[in-house]
Amino acid sequence: MTLEYGYMNASEPKEQDHSPESAWTLAFLAWFIASASTLGALFLSQVMDIAPCVLCWYQRIFMFPLVFILGAGLFPFDARLVRYALPLTVVGWMIALFHVLVVAGIVPENIRPCAQGIPCKDQQIEWFGFLTIPSLSLIAFSLIGLLLLLLTYFKASK
């Protein structure tokens, strides 16, 4: 790379960092998001006594194991953790998206899954006027999925 007038020439490609440390950082961030989501879900149900609906339980089923799968892949680092974590993330993301659509009223009444128990459409928490528990779950699954896909890209571009 050449420097012209104290800055890099924009026409030359920049070097990308595909080091093992970068891949580990991506996996760590995915683990951190999964851990924060798990602790947040447990805090809401156990401390604040907010009972989860059926769809929330399904999302928990796919989020909670990610803490252990991603954590086990960090020490020692194993980039193959993507093959175990990504399927859970994708299914959890689809359930979270469906839940957001239920809350928004887009899903027709006759296919709503929460006929018994806690209604899935009711929201006990709404932060900033738009951020609900299902949308937080969708954001978490989306970020974890994005980080895992980036990790796959880093692994493939070696």
Number of helices: 4
Assign an overall shape.
Answer: elongated
Compute the CA-based radius of gyration: 20 Å
Structural class by secondary-structure content: mainly alpha
Please give the order of strands in the largest beta sheet.
1-2
List SSEs in N-to-C order.
EEHHHEEH
Give the name of the CATH architecture.
Up-down Bundle
Estimate nothing, just give the exact number of structural domains.
Answer: 1
Largest sheet: 2 strands, antiparallel
- Low-pLDDT runs of 5+ residues are none
CATH fold-level topology: Bromodomain-like
Tell me the helix content.
55-70%
Bin the strand percentage.
5-15%
Measured distance between first and last alpha carbons: 21 Å
Q: What integer is the average pLDDT? A: 83
Q: Compute the number of strand runs.
A: 4
CATH class: Mainly Alpha
What does it look like?
With 158 residues, the chain is mainly α. It has one domain (19-156): Bromodomain-like (Up-down Bundle). It is 60% helix and 5% strand. The strands form 2 sheets. Strands 1-2 form a two-stranded antiparallel sheet. A two-stranded antiparallel sheet has the order 3-4. A hairpin with a 3-residue loop joins strand 3 (126-127) and strand 4. The radius of gyration is 20 Å and the shape is elongated.
Task: Annotate the secondary structure layout.
Blueprint: E1 3-4, E2 7-8, H1 20-47, H2 54-72, H3 81-104, E3 126-127, E4 131-132, H4 133-156
Antiparallel strand pairs: 1-2, 3-4
Q: Main attributes?
A:
158 residues, mainly alpha, 4 strands, elongated
Could you provide a short overview of the structure?
This protein is mainly alpha-helical. It has 4 helices and 4 strands.
